[in-house]
Structure formats: C-alpha cells, structure tokens
Amino acid sequence: MSTSYSVIHQSSRRLRVRYAAGQAIDFDGLATRLESLGVDAVSVDALRRTVLVRDDGRLASRSAVLDVLAAPPKLARTRRQQSAAPSTTALSAGLALALMPFLPPAGRGTLALATLGLRVLRHPPRHGEDWRVLLARAAQTIGGHPLAALGGLGLQALAERFGQAQETEAARLLLELEPDADSPCEVRTAGAWRTTRANALAPDDRIRLQAGMRVPTDVELRSGALRVLPPWHAAGSRPICEPAPGAMILAGSTILAGNGEASVRSAWAESSASHVRDQITHLLRARRVPRNAPGEGPLPLAVSAIVLGFTGDLARAGALLETDLDAGLALAAPLARDSAAWALARNGAVLADLDGLERLARADTLVIEDLGLVVEGEWRLATSTLPGGRRRARSLLAALLEPGNPRRWHDRLVESLCQRGAIVESTGEWTLRVDPHASTPGRRVFRVARDGQPAGEIVLELDARPGLDAFLARARTAGFRRIVRITHPETPRDIGGFDDCIRHRRSEVREALEDLAESGSTLAVYGPSWRAQVPPGAVTLAPVDAEAPAHFLLLGDPAESLLAARMLSTAIQRRERQRQDLVGVLNAALMSAAALRWLPPEASAVLHQAIALGCMIDALALRKLGSPHMPGEHP
Known about the structure:
Elements: E1 5-10, E2 14-19, H1 27-36, E3 41-45, E4 50-54, H2 59-70, H3 79-82, H4 86-99, H5 105-122, H6 131-142, H7 146-177, E5 184-189, E6 192-197, E7 206-210, E8 219-229, E9 248-249, E10 254-264, H8 272-285, H9 298-311, H10 314-322, H11 329-346, E11 349-351, H12 354-362, E12 365-369, H13 370-374, E13 375-384, H14 389-400, E14 408-410, H15 411-420, E15 422-425, E16 429-434, E17 443-450, E18 453-464, H16 468-477, E19 482-487, E20 500-503, H17 506-518, E21 523-526, E22 539-543, E23 552-554, H18 558-595, H19 601-620
Parallel strand pairs: 12-19, 12-21, 19-20, 21-22, 22-23
Antiparallel strand pairs: 1-2, 2-4, 3-4, 5-6, 5-7, 7-10, 8-9, 8-10, 11-23, 13-14, 13-18, 15-16, 16-17, 17-18
Helix pairs in contact: 4-5, 4-7, 5-6, 5-7, 6-7, 6-10, 7-8, 7-11, 7-19, 9-10, 10-19, 11-18, 11-19, 12-18, 18-19
C-alpha cells in the first residue's frame, strides 16, 4: 500500500501533516529520521496519525522533510500478518485428529509432533515467550497424549479466528462511521453557491444543510430550523434533536427535516468521525495477540515432575502438563477485551485504552467539568423591561444572533455578542451593550437604548442542565462515593449536589487532582481540557468532539454515556473475576483428580480443553452486555 498524507497546516517554518488510516507507520522511527535532519522540533501523535515539524524555513530543509514524510518507516508486520490464515493450522489439527483412531500409538505421536512443528513454523514464538508451552506440547505428545497437544493447537487457531472475525467487523464499522470524502456539498463563495467535495472543505466555509443530507464534517449551525439525528447513540435509541443557532452538529449526523446554513468547524480529516475512527484503529493495534496459554505456569511443571518421580507414569505426567489453574484464560483475555469494547460502543462509549476499562470500574471519585454535564451551554431569556416585553427582546436577540430558535441561544453566540456589542436596525436604531458590573457568572445583563435613549434591559441566564440532580443520584448509585465539580468562570456557582468544587485554573486543578489521588481516591475525570493534569492511575472521559485524547470517548449524550460506561465496566470486571474464580476451581479439581488417578489421562486432557473452550465462549458473550439505564432502551 502506498503511503499518502494530507497537509493540514503549512507556513514558512511549520508543517503539519496527517497520514491516512490503514497504513502501518512506525511514528517513533519517523520522528527519529526527522530529527536526524537537524530540524528545530518534531512532534508526533500516533493516535491522530499527525506529524508536526518545525524547520529553518529553507527550501532544501523543507524538501528533505517532505522526502522523509513521503517514505516513512513501516511497523514490523505483526505475528498475525506474518502467519498464514489461522484456518490452515485449524485444518491441520482437525485432519490429524480425524486420522488419530486409525494409527498405531507410535504413528499418533509422530503425527502430533508433525502438526506441532507446522504450528511452530507458521507461528514462531515471539522473544522466546512460548518456549515453555512448546516444551509442554512436545512432552504431552511424547508421553502418549497427542490429543492434548492437538486440542491445544485447535483452540489456539479458533481463538485467532474469533479475533480475526471481530477485527473484520470493526473494519466494516469504520467504513460506516466516516462520511464519504467525495460526497457533494454546497459552499457559499462570494455570495454564490457552488458544489465541492467534502474533503475540500476548510474551516469557516459556509455550507448549506438540507433535509436528507448527511453532514460531511463538524459544523456550527448559523441559521435555520433543523431536526437532526446525531451519528452516535445507543443501540435502539433515536435521540432526534433540534439544535439552536451556535450549536455544533457532528460529522455523520443526518438532517431529517428543515434547511439551514452552517460554518465548517474542522476539515474533513479532522472531524469527530475521524477521531472515533482513530480511537478504534488504535484499540485494534493495541490488541494483544492470544498466546498458547496452557502449560506455561510453574505449578503444572512442578506437579508433573512430582507425579513422574513417585509413579514413573510418563503418560499421566504429560497430561498434567496440560492442566493449569489459569488454562484458557489467556486465550479468552483478548477476546474478552474486544467483546467488552463492542459492548461499550453499543451503549455510548468508545474505549481507546485497554487499561481504561479496569480503571473506570474501580474509580470511586468522579470529577466533572461544568460545560457539557453541569450546564448545557445555552442561554435563555430570563427577564426584559423593554417596551413590548419578552417578544421585543426575543426579536432583537434573534436579529443579533441570527434567525433561529428564539427561546435559547448557544454560549458561543452570546459570548461573541458580549465582546462586540451590537446595533440592530428595526423601526429605529436599537443598541445593546453588556453591563459588566451587573453581570455575574451564569447571568448576562444587556442595557438597551433606542435612538440613543435608554429603553430597558435584557437579562439572559445560563441554567443548570435539566436532570442534573437525577444524574448525580444515578452516579452515586453506580458507585461513585464522591463527586467533585470543576467550576467554569462563566457558569452559575450556586449549583448543589457536589461534595467539593475546584476553581477553573490549571494550577489549582492539577494540585486538587493530585491531592485527591494521594488521599487514596481512584479518579474518573470528565473534561476535554484536563488530560495533562490528571495524575497517574486516573481514567479520563471526553465528549466525541474533544480535541485531546482520552481513555473513553462519550458518544451521544455525555451524561448517559458516562453512566453506561461506568455500569458496563463494573459488570465486565465482575464477569471477568467470576470467570477466573470458576476456572481456577475447575482446573484445581481436574489436576487433583488426574494426580490421584481418579481420571484417565485422556479424560483429563479432554476436560481441560472443554474448560478452555468454555472460557472463550464466555468471553465472546460479553458483546451482548448492555446498560439497563441507557436512553432509548425502553419503548
């Protein structure tokens, strides 16, 4: 596959590029190559697949940088890519098992050893980590139990097949997540509309939104009345919304009805859909390839040696090598992580870091930023003393903030109005100016004059998010013993229900989070701007359009997605512990029965493989888990 990248930003001394998905690029090696050119600085983001280079601005230097970017070092092919299809090994093991009854004992051992050798050739051990497993397989075969060795190979091939099927499904989902780069869009240029492709859109372009259209990238609604189906929602839910002017509409949203005009907030390659795609791609790359699990612990080796020393029964000692207290769990672990990621995605959260699952399950303190969870970022008309009352106030604000829903306005529009002031032409001259002395956090007071004479005031208020009390109660029910709020300077401060508050200052937030961590709390931090401030061991959550990476991207409504992610993580970790406990008990009983000669070696091997297969099936069943409290799950 040829390497392709797009230039995101370029100046005389800066160059930022983004590589297309699906290319196995060694970003660390790429940074090393660029640094060897003597450039001023190099910054890479493997998750977003971007590279930022600062050079001296000379033509020769920029040409050398472009040459390296055009031919980046590739990642070493993974074990899965180097090997043949898993079905080859599975077919070999299945054929050997079918021939086993028709061969003499010596022939059985030879056939099993040949199959094991084929496995080694096609799936070479990595860094010597599987040598004990291979010795155990060989000992089982020589000891007269080729069934155990071949059964283990078959389970390994089956686990790889399951993993490959989940990766194929993920790749198919990635194609559906991102809008087509070639989809046509109408862009306003010099007062006229022209048609262009989605990947040619640039920030601040004005595009037309129409019923039936799939939004090509993240946009900010400027005018119009729309009914929109967001791209991210829980299975079975249909959270149709009617965004107010100034609200963000995410890439991939479907316009169900209405018409409007919006300004582009991000290029096609930098949209929220691309962000989600990068999260899933990163998760697939981080997936741990299942190893041969049985026989690699010291306990089976010790028990086998004891049995061989006291009884001299080589066959029974070989069978005991196959029985491990943790057998099957290593094969099931990667499948369980993939299945858990799918269950979370179905219920509103994309997992980007495998460690985030366990961290969120054990977190006891929830730290949330105001914007998005405590307040929604939309202002409402509280009072008006103008002639004509609230109707006159709404008409003036609608004229200033562009036509749209006259009952609420997005924070971006209100703050821009506060910064610039305004004059409105309407049956005379109206002037609005924000009163900084009368305005307080969560409250904006505008002094209105008509023809230069005072005419009254308009008061806008930023209220707490509807259902905030219910959200906080459900968060405590989900296991968060403490809930802390990071107060934004412009949001109301008299909002109750929190155990503590942190001022929205970078140094204070860092110190407060460190103090919480040192007190023994495990933190779950919601807030797209605090990734760099969270202490080690904390888990971060962010909305889907956040710029900074996080352990979890919350799809759809962030409050519901956060609660669903918490409850699912807890359920998944509980299921994992139950599986580990059950497998430990079963394999301990099996090992004891085999050592005491209560079971023949053949039965011991078959039961062991059945336990491992049950682990894998239980791991795949995690995909069906769902949150009982997600919106839209009820009729």
